[in-house]
Amino acid sequence: MQLFNCPFCGPRDQSEFTYVREVAPVPTLDDSQTTWQAYVYERDNPRGPHREWWHHNHGCRQILELVRDTLTHEVISIQAARSAGAEK
Ligand SMILES: [Zn+2]
Q1: Ligand 1 centre distance from Cα of residue 79 (Å)
Q2: How far is the CA of 37 from the centre of ligand 1 (A)?
Q3: What spacing in Å lies between the alpha carbon of 45 and ligand 1's midpoint?
Q4: Spatial distance between the Cα atoms of 41 and 12, rounded to a whole number of angstroms
Q5: What does the alpha-carbon distance between residue 66 and residue 50 come to, in Å, rounded to a whole number?
Q6: Could you give the CA distance from residue 81 to residue 65 in angstroms, rounded to a whole number?
Q7: CATH code of the region 3-26+47-84
Q8: Integer Cα distance of 53 and 88 in angstroms
Q9: What one-character-per-residue DSSP string does the chain give?
Q10: How far is the CA of 60 from the centre of ligand 1 (A)?
């Protein structure tokens, strides 16, 4: 069991959250098909700290931005995605 410390709900089991995707700028409707294809299908898959969006779907229903180590699963930081400035 792993706990995520939601900034709104406090420590909660990871099973309450759903992985959304890695943090990336969302293309605009005017962007090319190639840009959209890269956004939807391409992933960096890094080794080590990785910025990710998670949805607290069984809690506050907020989108959160985590920095998570992909080797150890340690959550280095967690905050609301909107306060991180990650959403358009
Ligand atoms: Zn929450």
Answers
A1: 10
A2: 31
A3: 26
A4: 30
A5: 8
A6: 5
A7: 3.30.2270.10
A8: 13
A9: --EEEETTTEEEEGGG-EEEEE--PPPPTTS-HHHHHHHHH-----SSEEEEEEE-TTTT--EEEEEEETTT--EEEEEEHHHHT---
A10: 4
Domains of the chain, by residue range, sit at 3-26+47-84
Do 6 and 81 meet the contact criterion of CB atoms below 8 Å apart?
Answer: no
Cα(30)–Cα(70) distance, integer angstroms: 33
Assigned token pair, 24: 């990336």
pLDDT digits (tens, 9 = 90+) for 37-70: 999 999 888 999 999 999 999 999 999 999 999 9
Q: Give the pLDDT band of residue 88 (cuts 50, 70, 90).
A: very low
What residue type is assigned to position 20 of the chain?
Answer: V
